[in-house]
Amino acid sequence: MILFALTLFAAAPKAAPADAWAEAMPITKVETPAKVDDQVGGMTFLDDGRLAVAFHRGEVFIREKDGTWNQFAEGLHEPLGIIQDGKNALIVMQRPELTRLEDTTGKGKANVYRTLWDGFGMSGNYHEFAFGPARGPDGALYVALNLASAGDGVFKEIRGTWSEIGKANREQMTAGKGFKGALAGRMYSRVPYRGCVMRIPNDGKGPAELYATGFRSPDGIGFDADGRLMVNDNQGDWRGSSPLHFVTKGSFNGHPASLVWTPGWNQGDPLELPIETLEKMRSQPGGIFIHVDLSNSPTQPAVFPAQWGPLAKQVVFGEMNVARLVRFAGEEVQGVYQGAMFPFLDTKELRNGNHRLAFSPEGALLVGKTHLSWAGNNGIVQINAPQKLPLLIERVHLLKQGFEVHFTEPVNGDTLQPIVKRFRYKYHAIYGSPKIDTDDLPTTPSLSADGRTLTLPLTEIREGFIHEIRFAKTACGQDGRPLLGPVAYYQVVKQAP
Amino acid sequence: MLPLRWILCLSALGFALPSQAQDGKLLYEQNCAACHLPDQMVVGPSLIEITKLYQKKPKEFLQWANKPQKKRPGVIDMPSMAHLGDANLLAIRDYMIKASAGLKEKPAVTKDPFERVARRPEVQRIFMPDVGPAAIAVALPGDLSYCFDAGDCRLRTIWRGDFINGWLYWKSNGKATGVIMGKVLWHLPEDTTLPAAKFHGYELNDAGIPTFSYERQGAQFEETIEPAGKNLVRRFKVTTAQPLVLTIDNDTQASAGTRQGNKLTLTPEQAKSFTLTVTLS
């Protein structure tokens, strides 16, 4: 290891221009079908390269290679995910059910709307969104069910068995004048499997099984390049900042409300359990979307294809509130998957509302937008795989005592000026959390001879903490190109052995 | 071993500390602009309106931003901005006042920009009034529409007139039901004594009319609902090993089976194909 001796020509550092991201990866608009409320609920590329999109009001359209749109289905109830299922069929998750849409007449339009699975409860509460499906390497489909919100009550008539567990009884939970929102719990699960991830094997034919509990508003569900199930969640009660969970069977992922659906549950109202008990039960997120700094409402994950060079197999997530995407690069440490998050395409030109992500066969990233009256947007944008990536932090590797930061190209060490901090969030019923236990961590960095790996020795690594590694806004490569997204947030679940 | 110039650079970085006020414009764009436009109510009120309310009330502005209340009907809850800190919030307030100066309020969008007449027949799943949450609204050719409940697998509501207006639901996040745009002629209330049913979906015929498939107590139902003059006819094909017993109301006539009061009993053979006609005014 040589200390900075190799920075041969250090161009005077200047901050990256405001639109450096958009310059490196131009963002273009994709025309959406005319007269359609183009908030995107689901988006996927078909085997033949055409794009299938499910929109807010229940239409499914297919975009031909020449850019024309043909309607495939309509009338769905808030579809929030779509995948292909064979030649003439798509599977969508809509608010009430997992549905297979099939064209059996060859007219290019689905005539069969087959219910694959509707064995979950609906209280009628607006917040009970249904996300997915994600197809696992095991051929099963995985869906995630949103909790209800105390922003409103439930319908008089519900689907599924009412759970009596909770401070308010059914009458007090019913929307209208009698609704006792204060007793509801900020987010609640009074009908089956709200807040759970469900597994529906055999391509959705079932039988469905409860896979994991502990979610709040899990809009992003997908598999990574190695077949790990990723589910993210939205900051709120029990979510100090939005987490990314690598979900295993039977795990409890932090939000207590759905624990009531654990088979044999006999511990009463999970919201009343001591925090220490819940803390022991919960599995830790492998990554955290830092509130405000990275993402307030993370959305669908998508895996970078080969066309993205060093980013291939990493994951990119959408974000609703801010004009930005988030990138994640993970690693296995002592049997636990964890890693670092980075800002990606952090440019106003992207605009916000980034909800559904899909890579085309050519490697272009398509981003479909929505808002559902919250902060957000509408329409679809496209970002082609760049000929040459901008200079980025490629990944961060945890050492026994410190971190190794890998860059996509040689960096100018003099310009980096790394600052390392750690902090964490509270685990509690209150909505969100400030950063707590923040500490600056002194380090003496050293750059590898090839200029691509920076080692940051630290005296101590703490489990359960986010370690923030921030470089100067003027950090640049040896060719003078700016380092884009000059910050990494590594969530240490397990220390390196 | 760290080069000296590196150490010097650290102090020149200018990362603002959280307690210091940052640039109000940038903070507004990062934290508020998604919901507040200068001159139009979108998710939240315009900066013109906010300025009117809080130009002379910084303390109250902070109160709101730290702990927003529910004030206007039909809008979402504003999330708390307490994490920004008072100094930053006041910088945002200054910017909001500046940015709205001299602007005129544009009217908020109050009408569905995608409003259209029903393509009859048309199927639309959406929350509907007075039924379960898994509702399916269907517009039939002519002037009849109905609501089939995929939860209890029953025809629940029939109306004459236009179809539905879903704008209240679609413009927000689901906190409203579709509105029936006609006169309700027939409706079944919830029946908690009904044995559970399993919904299997629907298939559209060439004309676009759905046939629902479902199962109750081992009997496999296929039901197609169509207009018949001013009435509505429900065509059934039921596969069952046992006699089929259905509860029907006074406005409903069966093409087969034995009726005793509101109870209709069909043999497995009769159940294979029969109709129920709902007489409508």
Describe this protein's structure.
The complex is a heterodimer of chains A (497) and B (281). In chain A, the strands form eight sheets. Chain A has an eight-stranded antiparallel β-sheet, with no helix packed on it. Chain A has a four-stranded antiparallel β-sheet with strand order 1-26-25-24, with no helix packed on it. The two termini of chain A are 22 Å apart. With 497 residues, chain A is mainly β. Chain A has a domain at 2-9 and 392-492: Sandwich (Immunoglobulin-like), CATH 2.60.40. In chain A, β10 and β11 form a beta hairpin. Helices cover 5% and strands 35% of the residues of chain A. The model of chain A is unreliable at 1-11 (pLDDT under 50). Chain B has 281 residues and is of the alpha+beta class. Chain B has two domains: 7-100, Orthogonal Bundle (Cytochrome Bc1 Complex, Chain D, domain 2), CATH 1.10.760.10; 122-278, no CATH class. Helices cover 20% and strands 32% of the residues of chain B. Chain B contains seven helices and 14 strands. Chain B has helices at 4-11, 24-31, 47-54, 58-66, 86-100, 167-170, 268-271; strands at 122-125, 135-139, 144-149, 154-165, 179-187, 197-204, 210-216, 219-228, 231-239, 244-247, 252-254, 258-260, 263-266, 274-278. In chain B, the strands form three sheets. Chain B has a six-stranded antiparallel β-sheet with strand order 6-7-8-9-14-11. A five-stranded antiparallel β-sheet of chain B has the order 1-2-3-4-5, with no helix packed on it. Chain B has a three-stranded antiparallel β-sheet with strand order 10-13-12. In chain B, a hairpin with a 2-residue loop joins β12 (258-260) and β13 (263-266). The longest helix of chain B has 15 residues, at 86-100. The N and C termini of chain B lie far apart (93 Å). Classes of the chains: A mainly beta (497), B alpha+beta (281).
Concise structural overview:
The complex is a heterodimer of chains A (497) and B (281). Chain A has 497 residues and is mainly beta. Chain A is built from 5 helices and 34 strands.
